[in-house]
User: What shape does this take?
Amino acid sequence: MISVDVTNNQTCIPIDEQQFREAVRIILSEKGVARAQISVAVVDDATIVQLHQRFLGKDEPTDVLSFVLEQDEDHLEGEIVVSAETAKSTAGWYDWPPEHELLLYVIHGTLHMVGYDDATPEQRAAMRKAELAYLARLEIHQPQETGNSPREEPETPE
Assistant: This one.
């Protein structure tokens, strides 16, 4: 059984807890995780800055942090923390709703838990492909007119 608990500790964006649960369950099931206890916390930038500093030594907001707490062949326990404020500010770059950006963060964090990484260009490409595929499974598509991947920084004018 895959259990996904969602905690909403922000008021910036309305969230769809069921959609978050569904995304996590789909990814874990497809990656062979039969039993899981995952918590998803939706927080503000101040909270994610504290966690980012504590665990990665970076004193700045980030979109998502994920933590594997326990893992064996078919069991996973972990936490995903996503920033609603970051999602709200970033969503404008891609002309799509902040709720979609936030769901992307949940997908991204879950993919990290099952072994995806984004440290190299090849890994980033595989991660992006998986993110877009899972968004599509949930009937969410990146706006075509932007031409940007939802995870790429937009070019800044010089």
